[in-house]
Structure formats: C-alpha cells, structure tokens
Write a structure and sequence with these properties.
Blueprint: H1 9-17, H2 23-41, E1 44-47, H3 49-64, E2 76-80, H4 107-114, E3 118-123, H5 157-164, E4 170-175, H6 181-187, E5 190-193, E6 213-218, H7 221-231, H8 249-256, E7 264-268, H9 278-293, E8 297-301, H10 309-324, H11 343-354, H12 357-370, H13 375-399, E9 402-406, H14 422-426, H15 433-438, E10 442-449, E11 455-462, H16 467-481, H17 489-492
Parallel strand pairs: 2-3, 2-4, 7-8, 7-9
Antiparallel strand pairs: 1-3, 4-6, 5-6, 5-10, 9-11, 10-11
Helix pairs in contact: 2-3, 7-8, 8-16, 9-16, 10-12, 10-13
C-alpha cells in the first residue's frame, strides 16, 4: 500500500471515501511516522493518540454503515495549542495555563471535526503566540525539518513543522502579525491568513483580538483550500465573525477560479528595499515572471505607510495583549503560586512564575502605551498609522487584483540567533504585519530554495474576502514553479 503518511489531505480523504484505506490505517501510519521524527522536530506539545484512534474506529464504522464521508473524512489534523480542544491540554505554550483542559471545542476545531477530520494533537507555539521563532514556548523548542539547527518560524512554528515533517497533512495555526505565513515560508508549506472575520475566533485564546485570525497550514494549495472551506463561515458566538458567504475555495485551487491572463499583479515597492535577502528577492521575482508568462500584467504599486507598520503593530498588539492577559492572575483558573500571604503578593508571584520573558515584555510595553499621559503619544498614533495602512491597500486594490511580494526578508535563521535582540526578531514580520493591521487575506507559498537548501516564501495578498483569487494565483504558481513536491530529508528518510 502507498505510504499513507506521505500523502496530502485530498488524496487521503479520497482513499478513505472509496474504501481503499481505513481511518484506522491512516491514523496509525501518521502516528508511527510521528513517533520516528518527533524526537528530532518537537512540533507537538501533546499527542492525542488514544482519542485519535478511537475517532478513527468511529469513522470506519460510519462509512461501513453507509454514512456519507465528510469533506475531510479520515484526514489527520494538528491544532495549534492556542485553540481549545475539549478535554485536551490547552496551554498556549505557557506555564500559567499548564494543566488547563477546556470543556468545549473552538468553533473552527468543531467545524473540522464535523467535516470528518481526526485531531492528532496540539502543536507547540511561542507563549501566547508572542514570537516569531517558537523559541518562546515554556516547554520546548521546535526545530525546522529542513535544517534542525534553524527555527521553524513562529508563533505557529509547531503546526508548520508538523506539516513539513509529514507528521500531519493539515494543521491549524493562528496569525496575529504573520504567525501562519512566516512559519510557512520557513518550512516550504502553504499558509493562509484569511480575511479578518472569515474564521470564527470563538475558542481562540486571545493575544490581540483585533488582529488574531485562525487559518490552515498545508503542503499544497488545494489542501489549504480544503482546510479553509471546512473552517470558514459565520459564527453567532463571535461578534467579529462575518456573514459574508463562503466562496468555492477548492474550485479556485483546482483551476476553476479566476483566469491568470489579464490579472493585474501588484509589486509593492516597499517590499523590495533594504534588508531583503537577494536570494529571497530572486525567488519572488520568479513568481512575477511566471505570472507574466501566463498573461498577467505586472504593476509596481506603493504602500508608503509600510514604514510605520512594525511600530504600529507592536503598539496595537501589545496594548491589546496587556488587556487580554490581565485575566491570568491566579484567581480564576490556571497556575497559582501557593506561597503568597496576600492577594497582591499572589498576583505578582503568579505572574512572575507563570509568564515567560517575552510575554512580560509585551505586557509592560502595552501597559505603558495605554497609561495616562502616553495614550495619545503612542497608542492613538499607532491607530492613525493603522488607518493609513488600510488606505494604502484600498488605493492599491483600485489598480491591481492581488499583491505579490516576499513573505519574510530572510530565510529561516539559526536557533538562538535573535533571542538577545528582540527588535531584530520583530523585523522578521515586516512584510506580514500590514495584512493583519488592515484585515486583508494573505497567503505564503513556497517559491524556491536558497543555495543552502533553505525554503523561500512568496506572499500573495488580496482584497477583503477575495481568497478565491489568492487561491487561483497560488495554484498557478504551484503548477509552474514545481517546488511544493519537495520534502525535507528528515521526512522521507526516517
């Protein structure tokens, strides 16, 4: 039989639906492969082996009784540990939530399960999604399957590494400033941040509520479309959830979407300036050439407020984090320091021991930005810059249909390389934060490799709720560049 752990979500679902592979066989194949590579990659915080196998048995019985197979029937999926899964450890990579098991599923998790997916486990992440390398987890450091001495990106590095290492064909991440797309670029996977409001945030532990958005990470564009199709839709439990109808993402990924000929492709001038690695720039230029060869019109555009993006993002995000993380005080749930003699001391000791250094740094930055005397000087100015960024995108999309540029300024950096320089770490998100500040959808796809064999990511940004055009462009590039079939040696030689 075909090695099931090497297949994507689409082929696995088809094998299951035709009765050519059972869910039990699919799950066991992935658990076996995971057991071999996980000690080197460390992508998971918890593996739900027993629950996954029980679920697989149930799916096989349902198929045998004539029940129709769901859109993701039999497909193993990994969930970033910032999303609630009923009865499963949900730590957000933090000691302060160690041992917490939510009594409910996040809406997007429930949607995946309703589509027939099998939850294989919860993936590692930067604590409370605050980081760009998955080195800020309280529990372990995830490694990049393409080079185990390099980071997989963050904060969804565990989900991206699990997909790249073939531990699962599909994973869910969250993106606050690039936390799906940057790991996807570093690991040669496909990662999509949908339009803000496209996927429910109910059950997503908040970092920055106006920026957070869940989305799929997969090995192919079509698999990513399958993931988004299952997760997207209105949720009355989330006041920011959109009522916009769910489009045919799978059709767009299969070539039944918008034609590339005649498409206007924007090249953001500000994305090709100082700090961009030449090999990354060359990889993205190949994408422009491939689209031009298909008849697309390549148009240079300007997003001048990009210069303010990092500063604006880290003021808005930390301010919202300061508010959201106030609930972790040792009173309601989670870790509590048992040695305090007063309430005030208990607050301080709990947070001192429960939060890691990066979370503490961002709480302090956000609290300072919101404090009396500084609100106008920092937070209010950041919100004005956010308005300028939105205006930039609105003007650009009057001229073009999509924007295509680099996802990150460099390939994956070495473990520990930027831990002592937070600003350098923050600048790795320079091309991704604008999509979160504006709310537009954006996807990263692999577009090549450096001479050292490190993946390069190309970012495609679109209009609000125009994910189908992004999928059409991504599918065309996937076909023309032919780089997505490559796998890290670790994944095929285990």
């Amino acid at each position: 039989m075909t090695d099931l752990a090497r297949l994507g979500a689409g082929p696995l679902r088809d094998l299951f639906a035709r009765g050519e592979a059972s869910a039990v066989e699919i799950v066991r194949a992935h658990l076996d492969h995971l057991g071999r590579v996980e000690p080197r990659v460390e992508a998971f915080l918890s593996v739900m082996a027993d629950a996954a196998q029980t679920r697989a048995v149930w799916l096989d019985r349902s198929r045998s009784s004539g029940e129709p197979a769901g859109a993701l029937a039999g497909v193993p999926v990994a969930i970033k540990d910032v999303l609630c899964v009923r009865g499963a450890p949900t730590t957000c990579g933090s000691r302060i939530l160690e041992g917490f098991r939510p009594p409910f599923d996040a809406t997007c998790v429930k949607s995946l399960v309703d589509a027939g997916a099998v939850i294989l486990g919860k993936t590692n992440m930067d604590e409370f999604a605050m980081g760009s390398s998955t080195e800020h987890s309280a529990f372990k450091r995830t490694r990049n399957p393409w080079d185990l001495e390099r980071v997989p990106g963050g904060s969804s590095g565990g989900s991206a590494a699990a997909v790249a290492a073939r531990e699962v064909p599909l994973a869910v991440g969250t993106d606050t400033g690039g936390s799906i797309r940057q790991p996807a670029a570093f690991t040669a996977t496909v990662g999509l941040k949908p339009t803000y409001g496209r996927v429910s945030r109910y059950g997503l532990v908040a970092f920055a509520s106006s920026l957070d958005q869940a989305g799929p990470i997969a090995r192919t564009v079509r698999d990513a479309a399958m993931g988004l199709s299952a997760m997207a839709g209105h949720d009355p439990r989330d006041m920011t959830s959109s009522v916009e109808p769910v489009a045919d993402y799978i059709g767009a990924a299969e070539g039944r979407g918008r034609e590339i000929a005649g498409l206007r492709v924007g090249v953001p001038r500000e994305f090709f300036g100082r700090g961009l690695d030449p090999e990354v720039a060359a990889g993205v230029r190949r994408c422009h050439d491939a689209l031009a060869a298909r008849g697309a019109e390549i148009v240079e555009v300007s997003l001048p407020a990009t210069d303010f993006a990092i500063a604006a993002y880290y003021l808005v995000a930390t301010a919202e984090a300061s508010s959201n993380l106030a609930r972790y005080d040792g009173v309601r749930y989670g870790f509590r320091d048992p040695h305090a003699s007063t309430l005030k001391e208990m607050y301080g000791r709990t947070r001192q021991a429960g939060f890691g250094p990066e979370v503490k740094r961002r709480i302090m930055l956000g609290t300072y930005a919101l404090s009396a005397g500084y609100y106008d000087a920092y937070y209010l100015k950041a919100m004005r810059a956010r308005t300028l960024i939105r205006s930039d995108f609105a003007r650009a999309f009057e001229k073009v249909d999509v924007l295509v540029g680099p996802t990150t300024p460099t390939p994956a950096f070495r473990l520990g390389e930027k831990l002592d320089d937070p600003l350098a770490m923050y600048l790795s998100d320079i091309y991704t934060v604008t999509a979160n500040l504006s709310g537009v959808p954006a996807m990263s796809i692999p577009c090549g490799f450096t001479k050292a064999g490190l993946p390069i990511g190309c970012q495609i940004l679109g209009r609000y709720f125009d994910e189908p055009t992004i999928f059409s462009v991504a599918a065309a590039l996937e076909s023309d560049l032919n780089v997505m079939k490559q796998a890290p040696p670790l994944a095929v030689d285990d």
